[in-house]
Amino acid sequence: MALFSKQNKEAFTNPLNLDHPILVQVLGICSALAVTSQLKPAIVMGLAVTVITAFANVIISIIRNTIPTRIRIVVQLVVVAALVTIVSQILKAYVYDVSVQLSVYVGLIITNCILMGRLEAFAMQNKPWPSFLDGVGNGLGYAMILVIVGAVREFFGRGSLLGFQIIDCKDFNNGMMTMPAMALILVGIVIWVHRAYFYKEK
Amino acid sequence: MKLNTNSNAYIIIYSAIMVLIVAFLLAFVSQTLKPMQDKNVALDTEKQILNSLNLRGLSDDEAHATYEKIVKYDEAQNVYVCTLENGDVKYVLPLKGQGMWGGISAFLAIDSDKNTVYGAYFNHESETAGLGAEIKDNANWQAKFQGKKIFADETKETLALSVEKAVNNETTVDAVTGATVTSTAVSKMLRDQLAKYMDFLKN
To answer: How many angstroms separate the CA atoms of B197 and B155, rounded?
Structure first.
């Protein structure tokens, strides 16, 4: 069994470019706009979504043949909700300040369209290993955009990166960048750049 | 034998088992992590109280050590009695109120005359970032409370400390721009909750 056959590689790399969850499918925008005013919560949120998508994909993929079709969405939701609760508890125990910053958005990962989308579209039909790769790929694709937007917004909004002051001026605060509206514009710009230079229609 | 995964009995048993497994898993995780979470929450409260005493930007360890040294909780009156390093005694009053989207809370530090504000720290659950959330994030705004009076005059009959738009005098702090509802809520919280401390403040 080839762990990195062509198909498996595609399961991992497609979501990073051709099937990018944010740039191409435009899913999961809501949280991408909300948690990107600084870099640190953006990274934590990206990692959280990556871990949850990967493991939810694996779990659903393992039990996919036992799931009754009529309640499959409920089963998917329970798996995701359980994982999200665990991650949120872990964040509260180990990185309290970040969990305060992320506040409701960790809980809202449950409703993140990327997750349910991947479970329904990929994990229900594929074996655990490709599902895991697909989950990691989609999570990283999502995290990538969060990090880009988060870095730009924190740098131009507060003159710092990851909390370290880079532009040295007291109480530097550019409200235009730190407000959610700018996140929408930045995501728009990223999508535009992606379409223009990296995305090739099949 | 191939199970009929669409029969009603199968669906009911399947969901029952699934729910049981998940319930035990979550209970286990929650119990294991609870002590650490409680510690974090307690430390966060300690930091907030120190913030209200204008001791900001301390690291976790520093904050805990300082707190242990200077703060004593008076349970009977729900007041934190703090003896600063120079010997001054300050009282910190915990306040709670309702903001625009969720709860807001505050720690108000006052001088031993029980009238002059020494410092203030505000916290919120879900105010809008950049607007209502400024009550927590904007240290300059919180600093405006320093030196304000709680009462209108020396007789200590009428509570006067409040937040109002474009007013800045002995008892009033200028409201946060773009956060009228939250500012009004802060004002209301100060009035309502300080009223409960009347006995303490008058003596």
So the answer is: 16
